[in-house]
Design a protein that fits this description.
Layout (H helix, E strand, L loop, with lengths): L1 H23 L8 H7 L2 H4 L1 H13 L4 H4 L3 H27 L4 H22 L1 H4 L3 H27 L23 H18 L13 H6 L16 H7 L18 H12 L16 H14 L14 H7 L4 E5 L7 E5 L7 H5 L8 E5 L7 H7 L7 E3 L7 H4 L10 E3 L7 H7 L7 E3 L7 H10 L4 E3 L16 E2 L4 E3 L3 E3 L1 E2 L6 E5 L11 E2 L4 E3 L3 E8 L9 E7 L6 E4 L31 E3 L4 E22 L10 E7 L6 E6 L11 E22 L17 E8 L1
Parallel strand pairs: 2-3, 3-4, 4-5, 5-6, 6-7, 9-16
Antiparallel strand pairs: 1-2, 8-11, 10-14, 12-13, 12-15, 15-16, 17-19, 18-23, 19-22, 19-23, 20-21, 20-22
Helix pairs in contact: 1-6, 1-7, 2-6, 4-6, 4-9, 6-7, 7-9, 13-14
Length: 714
């Protein structure tokens, strides 16, 4: 037994020496790759010393006949050994990742002290056990050290004050509109909510702290997170735009992500020079940053005491299961059981997904189904939501008959029917429900005289029919919308544009140029298209600034493709359903790179499409994803070849797309390769990704990506 003790002591002493070497000289060391792997095992391995040290501590409080058992010697030696190994792994991880911050320093000091104390506890245990009081005091001190070290480690991993966070029940404070500041009240709360786990407080992963203007300006290991006025050089924008699957994407994929409005706010703030002390009210009234900032602050500008509800909160696990990218469920207030539910993505929506909410229908007070494929039969289910107060049915397919199903909803206070086919009779029937106090009826069949009459008969109801006048301030119009769902069609497709305001002129182009006062076609009547068309459209009205332009693509389905053959494989991260993804008539979402696209980076994309039999072909359309900020560029070359036997190939068309010269918003872009009619059974497509990103790009010199989401053959 004594020999084993000496061997273990020698090993532990060597470990302590190595640990102290790493601790004292970490700034001068570079870690090889195989040791980096060992360092990254630190979060996995640290549970062993915690359990073993606690067992060792317990032994100090047991009767002598039990604690003298030789098994405790092995437990104490294993506790000391695992504590030293875990501390060394932590030092290796710290050296590799170059993290900084006070919490990291405290965590390293306490981790090293725990390792040393556990070693000393093993060596001098026989002397200590003779003095029970000292032994027990030291055991309690070790337990305190373990808890403190774990607390700081949790702060590094999950955010500052993670352990005690449930005890902090402070309500969010209201904000004074006159004194609200851009950084303190808008940008910094976004950083705290979405970046706080790693870069707020004493945490400085990668050496980056987002606490204040000084630390933000200093930047981190990778450079400046924010370069005022320069979106391309602001690394924080590069990281948030990377695909979720990428290692450098921020925030981490298991953490809450920035919303589209938060990313837009961040971009506009940086573009405006990243002001830190300026008040929002100091900005011009039509300034985009001012408008978005006040939209973001709206819940806090008139914050009132949270209402008390008679129902209990829904099961958090159930809410988590129901939450996804296309159905967002949020509490209406701090620790409130009341929920708000919003659906996104018309192509993803279905009645089944609405029915999944039945388990939490008691807690739902706000329901947003705007632009979803909602029909009258679905209103039967919605009418059973007992506490529903606000319902958004904008641009849905409901009818006046369906609205009658909502007449007995006792809690319904507000309903939005913008862009629906509701007329006077439907509104009158709806308002028989005297609980309703607010109705939005923009862009419906209800005309002005009817509105005046209905308002007189329902003085307790606020009926909003949209903007009917203007003042001396020039405001930008909202973007127009297209009522027909974009995507694929087989024969013809009817196109109808609209706007929330009346008497708005909408101009469109189909050549990807920007509509303006001198360019574009004025929309007058319903359009009918019979071929693939990319619309870009914009709203104009006297006394208003033009809207931003928006886009919609309508793609005519091509010939059936029996089989897709990948001669060169797509990258393993972006090859889901590789045999179908290019021919499933689904363009996908530009925000979802992983499931609806094939991605190539290290090699050319070479694919063969089998039509089953020889056919006359004259054009191949290739829908690509372009997200310049995320390193996804148009191909440097696209080539189409045809064959009847897969042996003899003829080049049908080849193009070299123009490379972008700056970062632009992400979009789907359809390349159309037309050629002289030819007979072919097999079509080969070759696409070449950018070998090196240009010097103006944050990732200059690195290889770019080429993404395809659909190939159509005509």
């Amino acid at each position: 037994m004594e020999r084993i003790r000496k061997i273990v002591n020698a090993i532990l002493f060597g470990g302590i020496v190595l640990l102290l070497f790493l601790f004292l000289f970490e700034d001068k060391l570079q870690i090889p790759i195989w040791l980096q792997v060992a360092g990254r095992m630190h979060p996995l391995f640290l549970h062993f010393p915690i359990v073993l040290l606690i067992l060792s501590i317990i032994s100090c409080w047991l009767p002598d006949e039990i604690k003298n058992n030789s098994v405790w010697l092995y437990i104490r030696s294993a506790a000391a050994f695992s504590a030293i190994i875990t501390a060394m792994m932590g030092m290796l991880l710290s050296i590799e990742q170059s993290d900084k911050g006070e919490i990291l320093i405290w965590h390293k000091w306490s981790g090293v002290i725990v390792a040393i104390v556990s070693w000393l506890f093993f060596i001098y245990y026989d002397q200590l056990k003779q003095r029970k009081l000292y032994n027990r005091i030291i055991s309690v001190a070790i337990l305190f050290l373990v808890i403190l070290t774990g607390h700081w480690g949790a702060d590094l991993t999950h955010g500052e004050n993670f352990l005690l966070q449930p005890l902090h029940l402070d309500q969010p404070a209201s904000i004074d509109e006159e004194n609200a500041r851009i950084f303190a009240d808008v940008i910094n709360p976004i950083f705290k909510a979405k970046c706080g786990n790693c870069h707020i407080g004493h945490n400085q992963k990668g050496g980056l702290s987002l606490n204040d203007s000084l630390t933000i300006s200093k930047g981190g290991k990778a450079g400046k997170a924010i370069e005022p006025g320069n979106l391309q050089k602001s690394i924080i924008l590069e990281r948030v735009h990377l695909p979720l699957i990428e290692k450098k994407h921020m925030p981490l994929t298991d953490k809450p992500q920035l919303s589209e409005s938060e990313m837009k706010l961040l971009e506009i703030w940086i573009k405006a020079g990243a002001p830190y002390t300026k008040k929002i009210m100091e900005l011009p009234i039509n300034d985009s940053l001012r408008i978005l900032a006040f939209e973001y602050l709206q819940p806090y500008l008139s914050l009132k005491k949270e209402p008390v509800y008679s129902f209990a909160a829904a099961d958090e696990k159930k809410i988590s299961e129901l939450n996804n990218n296309y159905r967002i469920i949020k509490p209406l207030g701090f620790h409130s059981p009341a929920l708000s539910v919003s659906f996104f993505g018309k192509a993803i929506y279905s009645f089944e997904k609405l029915k999944e909410l039945e388990t939490i229908k008691k807690q739902i007070l706000h329901l947003n189904l705007s632009k979803m494929l909602v029909t009258d039969d679905q209103l039967d289910l919605i009418a059973t939501f007992p506490n529903l107060e606000r319902l958004n049915l904008n641009y849905t397919g409901i009818t006046e008959l369906g609205l009658n199903k909502l007449s007995n909803m006792k809690s319904l206070r507000s309903i939005s029917l913008v862009g629906t086919n509701i007329g006077k009779a439907g509104l009158e029937n709806l308002l028989k429900n005297k609980n309703i106090k607010e109705v939005f009826i923009w862009d419906t069949k209800i005309v002005g005289d009817d509105v005046v009459k209905i308002k007189k008969e329902n003085t307790a109801v606020q009926i909003d029919q949209g903007f009917t006048g203007a003042d001396t301030t020039l405001l930008a119009l909202n973007i127009p919308f297209v009522k027909s769902p974009s995507g694929f069609f087989k024969e013809t497709r009817s196109i109808e544009f609209g706007h929330v305001l009346k008497d708005v002129s909408i101009k469109y182009t189909t050549d990807r140029s920007e509509p303006d006062s001198s360019n574009g076609i004025v929309y007058k009547n319903l359009l009918v298209i019979d071929s693939t068309t990319n619309f870009q459209f914009k709203a104009f009205k006297k006394g208003w600034l033009p809207s931003k332009s928006t886009k919609a693509s309508f793609i005519k389905a091509g010939m059936p493709i029996e089989k897709t053959i990948l001669i060169t494989p797509a990258d393993s991260k972006y090859n889901a359903q590789s045999d179908k993804v290019l021919t499933d008539l689904d363009l996908g979402d530009i925000g979802d790179f992983s499931s609806k696209c094939l991605g190539y980076q290290k090699n050319d994309a070479v694919l063969i499409f089998d039509l089953g039999v020889a056919k006359t072909v004259q054009k191949v359309n290739v829908n690509t994803l372009q997200s310049i900020a995320s390193y996804i560029f148009p191909p440097t070359r696209l080539e189409v070849l045809g064959s009847v036997d897969q042996i003899h190939w003829v080049t049908l068309k080849a193009i070299n797309p123009i490379a972008p010269t700056k970062i632009i918003p992400a979009e789907n872009y359809m390349f159309q390769l037309a050629f002289k009619s030819t007979t072919a059974r097999y079509i080969k497509l070759i696409g070449s990704p950018v070998k090196k990103l240009p010097t103006w790009h944050p990732g200059k010199g690195q290889p770019g990506w080429f993404f395809m989401s659909e190939v159509i053959i005509y």
